[in-house]
Amino acid sequence: MRLSAGIAGASLLTNELFAISTSAQQREVPESIRKLNRMTAGVVPISDDERKARITKAQRLMGQNKIDAIYLEPGPSMFYFTGMRWGTSERMFALVIPAHGELAWVCPKFEEERARELIRFGTDVRTWEEDESPYRRVVEIFRDRGFRTGKIGIEERVRFFLFDGIRKEGSGFEYVSADPVTVGCRVHKSPAEIALMQRANDITLVAYKATYDTMHEGMNQDEISGNCSAAFRALGLTGGVFCSFGKYTAFPHGSSTPQKLKEGDVVLMDGGCGVEGYQSDITRTFVLGKPTQRQRDIWSLERRSQDAGFAAAKLGQPCEVVDAAARKVLTDAGFGPDYKVPGLPHRTGHGIGLDGHEWTNFVRGNKTPIEPGMCFSDEPTIVIYGEFGIRLEDCLYITENGPKFFTTQSKSIDEPFG
After folding, report:
1. For residue 121, with 0-12 CB atoms within 10 Å meaning exposed, 13-18 middle and 19 or more buried, which class applies?
2. Predicted confidence (pLDDT) per residue in 281-291, tens digit
3. What pTM, to 2 d.p., does this model score?
4. Confidence of residue 27 (pLDDT cuts 50, 70, 90)
5. Which of 71, 77, 87, 366 is the most exposed place for a label (fewest CB within 10 A)?
């Protein structure tokens, strides 16, 4: 369910998902991976014109929500609006988008020249020396844009010490969530974003199939993960997967227990990659060798649950109906109910875009209407602790005519890649 990564300059990989041992990197590359070719030709990054339109929309949403400015630090939202990638540290580097007027940046003085090389939107760069307060620079921006009081939106990823410093320096303002602006923009993907996510999904399936072709009895999780990472590199970017075998496939995010693959094991692969920062997230579950009837039956039930979720993702319906539809298939078969195991212990799906998990979710209680441009995972899981788990995960996007999968679903437990 979790993923990250991208072509040069994209998201950093999470340690537990993509770390590969030195010995794994030095192994001979299997034939199915050696024959792969790069799949990054023709990738079209998000244009500056599209980013300008995003800023304009953000300012319109600020007006509608009576927010005078929003504050962001480096991360997906800053990248979304400006294309800026900058690391985080104890030193503030920040962006202020006002409801009216020019964007403004806050930067350590000694980093100013590098920042100006990278900044493409806005020329107002406020710097602070090591013995000065960066929080004062932020409040100066608010006041220079005409705000003496009012609402300041804080983006959800902003670390507390930064928010706290701004709040103390600018005590006359009301600080609120920037979600109505940032989520309001990012939750609806443009055709250019959909195209990047489509490429990430296409590449992920090719990497998975090449990795699948390397599997044999006696392999451990690190060997398979290493092969998958090598496959992504051969395809032109960085990505990865975690794997579980046998009874450990019932752990939705894997187990720390060392495992050796053996004939008859259920195998679960979950991960993905990113293209220009836009993520894929795919899970495939199958058996090494011949499945038992029990494995076939549970796999088929999982596929019916995934299908039910997809069918329920109709325009205008609240997001929660997808979770209800997928879960009903399982409860009707005797699993659950609710989040009880054996059964489905988590939501049916999450939003996806520049973050592997972002707003909004297919989960009970989420009344958000399904609208064109939204992107989600569809991944009900059947967890049977002590036996095995089955998860089929494909991501979808909402068109004017309803949902469409980025990927071809698994055909059967014997044909996980169609």
Report:
1. middle
2. 999 999 999 99
3. 0.92
4. low
5. 87
